[in-house]
Each structure stands twice: as structure tokens, then as C-alpha cells.
Amino acid sequence: MTPNSTYRLQIQPDFPFRAAGEAVPYLASLGVSHLHLSPVLEAVPGSTHGYDVTDHGRVREELGGEDGLRALARTARAHGLGLVVDLVPNHMAAAPRHNRALREVLRDGPSSPYARWFDIDWAAGGGKVLLPVLAGRIGDELARMRVEGGTLRYGEQEFPLRPGTEHLALPELLDAQWYRLGWWRLARTELNYRRFFTISDLIGVRVEEPEVFEATHAKIVELVRDGVVEGLRIDHPDGLADPEAYLHELDRATGGDCWIVVEKILTGEERLPARWPVAGTTGYDALRRVDGLFVDGAGAAELAEHYRRFASPAGDRGGHWEATARRAAYKVVTHELASEVAYLTRTAAAVCAAPALRDHAPWALRAAVRELLIRVPVYRPYGTGAEDVLTAEAAEEAKATFTVPEEAAAVDVVRGLALGRLGDGPDQRAFRTRFAQTSSALRAKSVEDTAFYRYTPLVSANEVGGDPGRPAVSPAEFHAYCERLARDWPATGTVLSTHDTKRSADVRARIAVLSECPQRWAKLLDDVAGTPAPDGQVAWTAWQTVVGLGYPHGDRLAPAVLKSVREAGLHTSWTEPDPAYEQAVLDFVDAGPAGPALYTVSLLVRELDPYVRANMLGAALLHLTMPGVPDLYQETEREYLALVDPDNRRPFQEGPPDEKTAVTRAALRLRRRYPDVFGASGAYASGTYQPLTASGPAAGHCVAFCRSGETVTAVTRLSLRLAESGGWGDTSLTLPEGRWFDAVDVGREFRGGEPVPVAELFAARPVALLSRRPVTDD
User: CA 58, CA 71: separation in Å to the nearest integer?
Assistant: First the structure.
């Protein structure tokens, strides 16, 4: 069954299945059709997110176990709701204490039946798996190790022993294992298993192997076939060896009747591969288009100029988005992903052992791998479309970086391997697959987790799938995108806030207003200049974050700002912290953004509130009525102001309704009553989404569309610019023929076929939702 709307709950030990069941009556009253649960399979004890899976064959006991999940499904079904579950096929927790499959590999080595589960390069590790778990060099950590009950213990960690070695002296015992315990810093250069991005605590799983797929999917498939689960959100498909093949296998296993969306991040105008047997993406592409409508392009450019002067970005900070992203990519591919580049270099060298390819120096191959990886403009190249991504122009640009022109020929070898042009042997296939997997890791780490924290003129634009260099989206672009969704992916997922967004939609809506008043923002910075900051970059980011929150909340602001400077990696980082700099950041937050400057900031916040309201309500209504299946993140049916995780992963709580709740309920009520109108239950004729164009002096500030001839959505964009230009004046919107009933303010009615003054349409609030059928207030 295709959902018409979903509601994401972060299931965790502090909010288990039982608590979710208690929330079902309230969530059903909102009008959603399905609950969307974060991962439910067994995970590391205490995990608040569940992406560190330890056993695919069991529903997590800390959440209530399988009985609890099935009970939740029954409760949901009794209230007319189904369940959608987050599935994590790419990786597991690299914790042998909890991960039985990994534990058996570490005990029995390559002969273990579980050895095929993981991408382990045994040769590179000298026949051992490097486990980068030690706090220091092994010689300094021996005193903390002990053997008890046939197990090697180090702090709270446990490691299995190779049979027959438990009675050896500690140094000999360590040498005799199928693994090598190492200092955590060695992961960067010597890790010999595939991981999730740069997180060594999460080991990649080879679901491309039929027996691994069956073992890791049997339970979730059982839950789907039993009707407990009706939909799946596939986490990070780009990490898989062959995402398309995996999705076809998943579609087969679940019977072809399960709603499946993939967390595929599309860059720019990149399209989801049409051959994938899925309903669409999880919706970050929709997030970018909705957010962009409420950004003033000219104002954003002015902000960027002021940012360059105020923050004085130079060197690695970069004053322009493209340069910043490129520098971040060089940093990540050289440092954080050094072990992945080493694997690709070794594999390329193995291919080059053939007579026709000999004499390519390893350093040249390594340089070619790096230079081509950073020039992949999307997360991952796919199959026949790879040539459009890994272009000949990119190869020429990569060659130009070589100081020895003769060595630049290595670029052709690496590109040929990545495109599958140099044969189809085991080494060639291994290179092609790992190049694609590493490409996605590089883009995620260099763009999302580095450049987004280094280039911050308008921090609301720095979200997954976003383009900080071009944050504004025109109404024409938005309509074209929606028409394509209605035609090609009518049941795709759409989102505004998720567990991974760096700022919730309402925080971003507040910050976006600054693009309409860059001079007022500049004045605020002048007014708070008396609070010295470690540097202009952190000051700019922190003050924008306060505007986004609307109030200081120092206990939440300080961790977010500290995380931002660590991710940026300019003065401090997670692995190389600078205590003095970090303390200066915290002192600045306490002295300014979270302290005495409250009054100064509150003046601007109150001044902008009417325009923030237009952004928040407009984005919410567009999300709920545009093509696709809207996913509401927990608590976002009302104003929800949250920062980056863990701030946005607090347990769900019901709260008092507000104006946003009224708009949300009205839209969800229409979706529930008339599902065919919104096209989520199947593909419809090309008239399913019809843009409506206003007329008059302020026409560009009204974005409107009609769904299947039955509902009309209209919102106000750039409301501050609108107010400054004199308001709506005689701007009007002609509705399709017939009578139209207000779905939010029940009792209001409009006549179609003739111009309706937009000022009248927006008399009660800056958005309107109309239905051709009468609406009752229930």
C-alpha cells in the first residue's frame, strides 16, 4: 500500500514501541496514513539512532522486541495507520562484543562462513583485520588488556581468541590472532575493511552476495510479508556494490508490493535512475526546491559579499562555494579517505601488472585516483551514465595537475577502470565498485560534513542535496520540478526536516528571511560587535544560528557551534582538537549569542516574525500538497526549532497546537479523504499538477498550483520584499472554474473563473488551501 503521508518517529530506548503506540491516537488524528520508524533491528545497546545494527535477524529488544513491534502495528492498524521502517543494508556495528558475525570472522579468520559478509582486504593487512580501537599505541595499552574466560578484554571491549591461543603470553597471543588491535589513528591510513564513510565503528556489509542478502533480510522480509511493515526507507544505497541489483532483489523478496524509497542524494538536476524499482527518493531533492523558493537570490548574493568581508575567508575557508568545496574534497581524499585511496591504488596497480599496462608508477596511480574522485560532480557514477559524470573534460583537468606529463597517462588508466573499459576481471570489477562507493563517501564527507561548515553566507542553504552557491529557486523552476515528479515519480518521498538535517525546516525558514534584508543583518553584526569572537567565521555562523532559533538556548547552541567548528576543521577538529580555540568558542557563545546580546537579537527576531511566519507556513503547505508522499518529522506539525543531531533526535513529545498545526491538519485531512487527488496512489494524467499564475504588480510573490483539478495551494514568497514594495495592490489569481472552499478557515468560499484579489485570498494568513468539495470542520 502506498502511503499518502508518513510521520517519522525516532524510536530509541527512551521512546520504545510502547511509547509510539501511546502516540498513535494523536498521530492518527493529524491525518497521516503511516508511521515511519527509525531502524528497528538489533543494535548496539543504548544506541539512540539504531544505524549501528548488530543482528539483522532480531527486532531490537531494548525497543520492545518483535512482540512490541507487532503490537504497535496492530494498534496502528486499529487507527487506520500502517508502518514504514528504516532499513540499513550497507553497514553494521564493528563491535565484536555485539556483532556475532564479525566476532566469528575475528575468531576463525578467512575460513569463517561469515568472512564473505564483509569487504576485508586480508592481503593488505598481512592476513589480519586492523581494528583501530586503542586509545594509544599498543605498547602503551598492553597494561589495560587481559584475558578472561577465553576472551581478550580491553576496557569495555571484548575480542574473541583464535582457538588454541588463549594460554599464550599476551604479546604472543596478540600476534597469533586474525586481527590486529591498533591505535585509533591508524584507521586513516591502514584500515583494511570497507566502512560507512569515515566511521570505522561501522563496517560495510556485502549484501550483493546472495547468502548475505538472505541472512540480513529474512526478518524484515518476514515482517513485510506478514503485513506488519508496508514500506521501507533504504538508508545510503550509494554505499552498496550494486544499488540497482540490490533494489531488484529487495523488490523480489518483498513481493513487489512494498512502498520503497531510497536515501539517494541527487545533486543539481541529477535524476534518479529510471530503472530502479522504487517509488522515489526520501525527498532531499524536494527540500532544496521548497527552501529555495523562500530565498531572495539578489539578497543572498549581497549576503555572500558581506560574508567575504566580515569573515575574511582565505586559504581553506574560501570565499566562494566552488573553491571551498574543491579544497574540502582535497582534504578529505588525502587524509580521511587515505586508506580507501590506498585500496584503489593497489587494485589499479594489480591491473597494471598486465603487459599492456605496465610501468605506471604507484604514486601516479594514486594521484590519478585522487584527482578523478574529487571531480565526480555527484555522489556516485552509475553504470551506463558514468561517462556523463566522469567526463573526458574531467580527465583532462586531472591530467593538468601532473608536473610530469608522461605520468598523466595514469589518469586514463584510472578512468578506464572506473568506466569498466579495461576488462571485466576480478580486480577490474573490484576497482569499479570501490571507486563508486568511495566517490559517495568523499562527497558526503567533503560537502555535507566539511564545506557546508566552511562556507556559510546563508546557513539555511547548507542542507543535504543543497547548493550554497545558488540557494534561490525560482517559481518556474519549482513548478517544472513538481510537474516532473507528478509525471515520473508520483509516489516519491518528500521531506523538510529529518533526523539528519543540520537545522529543522522552521530554523531554516527564519534564517532564509535574512536573504531579504542583508542590510539589517549587517546592522545586527555591527550592534553585537562588542562581543569578541575567536574569528569572523564562527561569529557569523553563531549569530545566524541564534536568529534561526529565535532565542539563545545556550545549552543547545553551544554544542551546535562547537560541532560546526570541528566539522569545518580549520582551527580544530574531532581528531585534532585545539582545546584553547574550543574554549574561546564556548566563551564567545556564553558572552554573546547565548547571553547579554539576547535583547539586541530579539529586536531583529520580532521585527522579522511576520515574514518568518510566511516562510514557515508556506514551506509546510507546499510540502504537504506538492507531488509525492510527504514525511513529517516528529513534532514538525507545529513550530519545531531544532539544530543538528543530537539536538534533533530528542524523544517525541506531544505539544500544544499552533497555526502551523491548523494548516497541517487541513492538508492531511484532504490527503486522507481524497488520496487520488494528490497522485500518491499511482500515476495519473498529465493534468495532475497544474501551475497557476497570478497577475499584477506582485505576481512573483504568489506561488500557486492546482492538484488534479480538485485542490488549490497558494503561498506567499519573499514576503518582506513584498511588504517593502507596497504589498499586493491589485494582484489577483484566477482559480479554475467552479466553487472553491477554504480548507483551513472553514466557511470561506471563492468563485473560480474570475480574478480573485490575492490580498483577499491571503486575508487570514499568508497561505491558502482550497478544495472544490465542501470542507467540514472536524
Answer: 16
What's the pLDDT tens digit per position in 371-399? 999 999 999 998 767 888 999 999 999 99
Question: In which band, very low, low, confident or very high, does the pLDDT at 685 lie, cut at 50, 70 and 90?
Answer: very low
**CB contact at 8 A, 84 and 6:** yes
Per-residue cell: 33: 496514513
**Residue 26, C-alpha cell as written in the block:** 494523536
In sequence order, which residues have a C-beta less than 8 Å from that of residue 61 and are 6 or more positions away?
Answer: 42
Q: Give the dihedral of Cα atoms 678, 681, 682, 683; nearest 10 deg.
A: 10
Indicate if the pLDDT at residue 777 is higher than 90: no
476 Cβ contact list (under 8 Å, min separation 6): none
List the grid coordinates of 112.
Answer: 569463517
pLDDT of 314 over the 60 cut: no
> Cell digits for 266?
541527487
Task: Report yes or no: 418 and 424 within 8 Å, Cβ to Cβ.
Answer: no
Question: Look-up: residue for cell 585509533?
Answer: 184
Rounded CA gap, 287 and 495, in Å?
6
Q: Which of 766, 706, 767 is nearest to 740 (CA)?
A: 706
Task: Return the pLDDT at 259.
Answer: 97
For the segment 149-164, the average pLDDT, to the nearest whole number, is 95
Alpha-helical runs (H) found in 312-359: 321-334, 338-351
Looking at the DSSP assignment, which residues form a beta bridge with residue 180?
130
Q: Name the pTM for this structure.
A: 0.96
Mean pLDDT of 253-279: 96
CA distances 139 to 22, 155, 170, 431, Å, are 53, 15, 11, 36
pLDDT in tens, 340-365: 999 999 999 999 988 767 778 899 99
Strand partners, 86: 233
> What would the DSSP string read from start to end of 645-699?
TTGGGSPP------HHHHHHHHHHHHHHH-GGGGTTTS---GGGEEEE--BSTTG
Q: Which residue reads 603487459 in cell numbers?
A: 355
Q: Residue 487: which H helix or E strand, with range? A: helix 475-488
C-alpha cell at 732: 489577483
Q: Which amino acid is at 483?
A: E
